[in-house]
Design brief:
By secondary structure, this protein is an alpha/beta fold. It folds into three domains: 167 residues, Alpha/beta knot, CATH 3.40.1280; 59 residues, Trp Operon Repressor, Chain A (Orthogonal Bundle); 139 residues, Gcn5-related N-acetyltransferase (GNAT) (Aminopeptidase). Helix content is 32%, strand content 24%. The protein is built from 13 helices and 16 strands. It has a seven-stranded mixed sheet, covered by helices on one side. A five-stranded parallel sheet has the order 2-1-6-5-7, with helices on both faces. Strand 13, helix 12 and strand 14 form a beta-alpha-beta unit. The protein is elongated, with a radius of gyration of 31 Å.
Length: 396
């Protein structure tokens, strides 16, 4: 069992917080034990006074050394070995995830000493404290919040406290990186969507996406951590190359919208596109400017297209997606990702279970966009007298 004793002027407040939820259940199962001790119970002063004016003058009062020592000594007498004592102080070393791992690994008993904003007698620190820890470059009115944070961070690493090691190994700072974004149901909420890759069912793609997002978050939010990362692996180098390529694309200058195409609008598109407008065609605009045109043609189950060396996931009705043209001046923007997001939303509005398409296998950039949007490769097929590759997107 891992033991933590907390010396504080507010034992009920601290104890109540650390007895709830995960840590509370872990204590019930004897994985950890967290006890609080009222420092005032160990003073020899009848008024239970534990602080006094500082030598040399100044505002406020300092916690006296003797009540701290008496409390600390009483705790130590309860155990065969001397616990590792930590004073929560703004003068201490900034606490990190690596410190939490070290304390969980190297010790089985901690004493956390909470002072107040004026501090404690330095003689107790010099004689009985093993290390000083701070939460950061700021000052609190007492050490209780810091003690609860340290206790929580350490205890959750003790075997049995969390259900599985992955519960903390996937989180921020475990491997020097920040955690990837997290999403839950429903898939659509307030006009915002869960990234398609998280609903594709391919665990390798999900893990790859999460790694990529962790790299981006760490780079953008914590450059100090990013500078220390080892990203020399082949897979990480691929992810970095993808990130560099994606950042070449600037966001479109205006919001996008889609509308059913008319023959007149189709004929007046100012950039190259298919001359004949198929049924079920749409024009995507950014602002009031046309940016792309595409079609989403309903296919019945009996119109099932055969794949030579693969198969569709299910022989069901679907929408057949074809891109018929884009504005070449928008090549280096996020036009294609935004268009594919609109295609996915439109497919859902039309209550289609699948969106399917064929693509030229030599067009690597287009295939990459399809994959990023959640389309999955299904094999080769012959379409429009061309040998192409089949992709499909499951709409949920």
């Amino acid at each position: 069992m891992y033991h933590i004793d907390i010396m504080t002027l507010f034992p009920d407040t601290v104890g109540d917080v650390l007895s709830e939820s995960i840590l509370g259940r872990a204590q019930e199962r004897d994985h950890i034990r967290i006890l609080t001790h009222q420092i005032r119970d160990y003073t020899k002063n009848k008024q239970k006074q534990v602080d006094d004016y500082p030598y040399g003058g100044g505002q406020g009062a300092v916690l006296q050394a003797d009540p701290l020592y008496q409390c600390w000594s009483h705790i130590c007498q309860q155990y065969d070995t001397q616990p590792h004592t930590i004073y929560l102080s703004p003068c201490g070393k900034t606490f990190t995830q690596e410190d939490a791992r070290r304390l969980a690994r190297e010790h089985n008993h901690l004493i956390l000493v909470c002072g107040h904003y004026e501090g404690i007698d330095q003689r107790f620190i010099d004689g009985y404290v093993d290390e000083e820890i701070s939460l950061g470059d700021f000052v609190l009115t007492g050490g209780e919040i810091a003690a609860m944070a340290v206790a929580d961070a350490v205890c959750r690493l003790i075997p049995g406290v969390l259900s599985h090691d992955a519960c903390f190994e996937d989180e921020s700072h475990w491997n020097g990186m920040l955690e990837y974004p997290q999403y839950s149901r429903p898939a659509q909420w307030h006009g915002m969507e869960v990234p398609p890759v998280l609903t594709c069912g391919d665990h390798k793609k999900v893990e790859r996406w999460r790694r990529k997002q962790s790299i981006l978050r760490t780079r953008d939010r914590r450059p100090d951590l990013y500078a220390k990362l080892d990203l020399s692996s082949k897979e990480d180098q691929k992810l970095l190359a993808e990130i560099r390529a994606e950042e070449l694309y600037k966001p479109l200058p205006h919001p996008v919208s889609i509308a059913s195409a008319t023959q007149e609008a189709w004929d007046t598109l100012p950039w190259p596109h298919s001359p004949n407008m198929p049924e079920h065609s749409y024009i995507l605009c950014h602002g009031d400017q046309a940016a792309a045109c595409f079609s989403l043609t309903p296919l019945e189950a009996q119109a099932y297209m055969e794949i030579q060396d693969g198969k569709w996931s299910a022989q069901e009705p679907s929408l057949w997606f074809q891109l018929h043209g884009t504005d070449p001046e928008l090549t280096h923007t996020d036009l294609v990702p935004q268009m594919l997001a609109c295609v996915r939303n439109l497919g859902r509005d039309l209550h289609a279970p699948w969106i399917r398409t064929a693509a030229d296998k030599r067009n690597k950039a287009w295939l990459a966009h399809l994959k990023q949007a959640g389309f999955q490769y299904r094999g080769n097929l012959s379409y429009d007298n061309l040998r192409q590759v089949a992709y499909e997107l499951r709409l949920k």
